[in-house]
Records
---
Amino acid sequence: MIIYSIVTLISFTFFSCEDDFLDKRESDILTSEQVFTDPVLFQKFHNDIYTYLHYWPGDWACQSFGGLGRIAYSSFEGASDLAEASRSVAGTNASFNLGNWSQLAFGAKVELIWPWEGAYAGIRRCNVVLEKVDSVPGLSTDDIDGFKSEALFLRAFFHFELIKRYGGVPYVTKSLTEKDNLNFVREPYDTCVAKIVNDLDASIKHLPMASAQNNSDFGRPTIGAAMALKAKTLLYAASPLNTEPYAISSGSGGSDLFFIEEPNTEAETTQKWIDAAQAAYELIEYAEVNSQYQLLDSAHYLDIFHGDAKNSEVIYSRVDGSFSFSGAKAFTGWISFADVGASKGYGGSAGTYPTQNLIDMYEMADGSIPILGYNGDGSPIINSSTTYNDQQMWENRDPRLKLTALCNQDMWQDRPVEIWFDKSNPTISGSEMKDAQDYTTTGYLCRKMWPEELRQGSTASVYMNWIWFRYADVILWYAEAMNHAFGPDGDGLGNGVTARMSLNKIRNRLNPSNPHYRDVSASTKEEFLERLLNERAIEFVYEEQRWWDIIRYKRGVETFGVPIYGVRIYRTSKNPLSFEITRRKLETRVFKDYMHKYAIPYSEIEKSSDLKQNPGW
């Protein structure tokens, strides 16, 4: 019997990168007797589970570094208001961003199809490991406990990725065969949450601390990773999408009042926020007591993403697209996924570029808010009490702006970035605007995910981290949950740490000389929440957080279904060099209320009469 020919919940289609051992899934061509009687082959079978993590599996066309291939070779951030795909893939992305999800070509549906198919493929392997590991010869008790703990963590991880997209799903805890009843019923969302938490609590018992993990095991879960996934699961469970009813427009017209399950009472929702805050604080306390995690300082901020893969802020990550347990891997020279930031002028080929919508979200350096809103024509309502000027919009801003975006005339790889057209002769342009296809449409390049060492012709090596959980996230989870439960300054858990204190810790980390320079001024729960969501947007841009933050607050229509802006920069004088900046609308996106939950793939609905589709689809 071939291991992977067994009928499972779904049909599987695999794409693999030829140079990646794990993505080849060698164990797929081995028999049960070979795999489960040989500890080495069993290890390989177990390791294969990790190839399903997050990029379901391997992402489209092998662009498998995190989300950098989710929608036609571009970052999933391009689906949010924070980024826009380059012109070469803009057609497919525009279709996605205009709400035409069902009309996308197959290769563009990675984010819409693979999460279901890939997650259940990974879940099946987890269940096989849990069922078979006790009978594999030559394994010690510690080995068996380790395999089980990893499988439980991964099973929880896959189910979390499913419920955040689809709501309640079948929670599968056994490997399925053609003899099983495959006519599944979706379990309530809160039931799935409870099962995820149970799996994680069980996994923690035998997972290692991060500091005790060998380089050869980097990428396997730790105690901190399991605690982080638990806290995030509980935070999402407390969020409005999963506690409140909301009306949606059905695909055939009309409106239905759609309850994910029964809506929570105010007291029930508050308790969920308390549970989320407690879970986040337990991880914070664990990190402090055991010296496991801490925020990197201002001088090393970008090292989080492309520095030492085992830096102290990262709780759980995967290093590059060809994941290996042989130690943290490094990229050498120019690599395709650096296209997320690079234009043709720097040797890149496409990219996903920061929008003006994102740039406007950055506060001034002192924490004041420069843009208060927008007029009907899209022009900004400028806060006159700040020094903000649209022609000098990048000056005196939150330092993370220039750590995220490359702006016109910034020095990069030994030359100024040239994102301009000549005012008197628009056929003359800067280096980043010369290519007919792959220039930046927004007027910015991405710096955050583009190590400066990686350039054409270079032999330099650099680590690239795709991060699922980092310590800054945990601190902001705690701030968010505490604010909902007790307000900005309430200490309902009695641990001496309020929501405001936690948010300020993130806001001020890049101002070491003045630790209170950018303290948040919000006074009410509502004001504090708006500043916290803004903080999350700029702290985690390009980390696949924004889409889900907006979705779980049911704000997709007003946040994603909006005009997206960039800038057009004109060179007005060559000597002395001067420029004129003009805002311009790139597109008006479409987001329908029923899109807060993905459609379950139609092929799966056809297979199971009891598997109900999400409303509106």
---
Amino acid sequence: MSRRNVAKKREVSADRKYNSKIVTKLINHVMKKGKRALAEKIVYGAMEKAEKQLGVPAMDVLTGVLTNISPAVELRSFRAGGVNYRIPVPIKEDRSRFIAFGWLLSEARKRKGMCSRDRLALELLDAHSSHGGAFRKFEENLKVAESGRAFSHFRFFNTGGARRSNPSNNVTGNR
């Protein structure tokens, strides 16, 4: 990891079918070992199945799922006084979507006895109607964030630079 430059964020191109960057990011998340064609087949099949069952356009299903399970805060661990606290930290929309896709796919992979397309379709349907494993993870995250809100002031402390800012530890300064 370079300490000199921050890596530039690359733009993803819109997918072929729905002309959406969000669908492309979902396909990239589903893809394993570079098998994009298989990932596209799974995602497009799941979205078509969800569209058919709900009678709503597939992009509306996906945006509904994302509004239902995208977190507004992320829990970061912070150690203070020998105790680990999980502190809620606000996150950007891209990070929120990334976490939501992770929850969606991990819960879809837990379902057994059917193909990947059907598992993802069922998880999309459940998340769209505020049920299922991904929505449970969202609620669990919300609950833990609410309980850790009392410790959120810790996120403003910079423990790395605290020693250097102390004048008594300053090597070059006057004592």
